[in-house]
Amino acid sequence: MPESTTPYAAERGPVPTPGQTIGPFYHFALPYEGGEHLVAPGCPGAIRLHGFVTDGNGTGIQDSMLELWQADESGQVVQQPGSLTSDPGRFTGFGRTSTWRDGGYSFTTVVPGPTSQGAAPFIAMVVFARGLLNRLFTRVYLPDDAEALANDPFLSSLAEDRRSTLIATREADGVYRFDVRLQGDGETVFLQFPRHEV
């Protein structure tokens, strides 16, 4: 019998698995009841943020999922457990929802306060969608404080024609709209963090 040999993986170390696109599994198990409500609709200070997630052709992506991470009205990043229980009396700064058939979504939340001096308040948004090799990170700035937006260090670092992709619009009924464009004209600015591969 031939002498046994060392298995390939043990000899050369772990072998990386091939890259795969994420999704489309977001309508199963990951969304949870009430996940789109960071606060209860109609409570004092509640706002509605809605929009569409679209591909390079402007078509809504129905099987994507969005997460929001944000500070409270005073700019404090809440560090309490309980987001997945959707306790309407507890603001955790986290929400999750999947998009509808037309790519639309909606969250109920609060206007965040600034987390650092000189910066405009923002809502962090994470996008998961079919065809992506990794999740995408972006920011949602509300349009109400023009001076804060003009002086924000991050927004100021972007080309002027790209800043608007991060600023929501306020509609006539007071609702905020923020569309996420994954490719093409008006593509949303996405951020890259250390150890985040795109």
TrEMBL record:
Q: Which UniProt keywords apply?
A: Dioxygenase, Oxidoreductase
The record's GO molecular-function terms, alphabetically, read: ferric iron binding; protocatechuate 3,4-dioxygenase activity
Task: Provide the coiled-coil residue spans.
Answer: none
Gene3D superfamilies found in the cross-reference section: Aromatic compound dioxygenase (2.60.130.10)
Pfam families, per this entry?
Dioxygenase_C (PF00775)
Task: Look up keyword Oxidoreductase and say if it applies.
Answer: yes
Q: Where is the Intradiol ring-cleavage dioxygenases domain?
A: 46-184
Q: Which family does it belong to?
A: Belongs to the intradiol ring-cleavage dioxygenase family.
| Protein name in UniProt | Protocatechuate 3,4-dioxygenase
Q: Which organism is it from?
A: Intrasporangium chromatireducens Q5-1
